[in-house]
Amino acid sequence: MNQVLENLSAQELYELARRREEEEREKIEQERREKLEELMAQRREMVARHKAELAALDKEIKRLGGGRKRAATRRSNGSSANLSRKVVDLLQEKGEMNTRQIKAELESRGLETRNISQTLSYLKRQGRLQNRGRGVYGPL
């Protein structure tokens, strides 16, 4: 083998080294793909097993009269339409109020006011209330 290598030109040695590097890269890439496929197969198997276990648990829960709890509603007293109506009613009742006063009054009545600024902006765009200054609103 050494005699064969000694008889090769620099260009031929370079080509031989390049081919060998390419073969090594391909081998490494093939090993990586095989490992990836193996891991993906393990994942699919695990997901299937967990789905089966969850289905069995859900069936047992249902058999015992339980069920999945429904997600809590974001607003305790109804929809955003209800909040919008309550804001308009409040401003007609009390007159001009700033955002903090509106929020405090609605919270004292047990309403969720997490998005009050968005509600006020919406009502202003709809023409259902007036903006009488920075953060001050009133009825039409």
Explain this structure.
This protein has 140 residues and is mostly helical. It has five helices and three strands. It has a three-stranded antiparallel sheet. The N and C termini lie far apart (98 Å). Residues 70-77 have low confidence and may be disordered.
Task: Offer a quick outline of the entry.
The chain has helices at residues 2-6, 10-63, 80-94, 99-108, 116-125, and strands at 97-98, 130-133, 136-138.
Provide tags for this entry.
140 residues; single chain; mainly alpha; elongated; three-stranded antiparallel beta sheet
Order of helices and strands: HHHEHHEE
Distance separating the two termini:
98 Å
Overall residue-averaged pLDDT value: 85
Question: How much beta, percentage-wise?
Answer: 5-15%
The percent of residues in helical segments reads 55-70%
Which descriptor suits the 3D outline? elongated
Count up the helices: 5
Task: Output the structural class.
Answer: mainly alpha
DSSP summary, beta strand count: 3
Can you list the strand order of the major beta sheet? 1-3-2
The value of Rg in angstroms is 35 Å
Q: Stretches where pLDDT falls below 50 for ≥5 residues?
A: 70-77
Biggest pleated-sheet summary: 3 strands, antiparallel
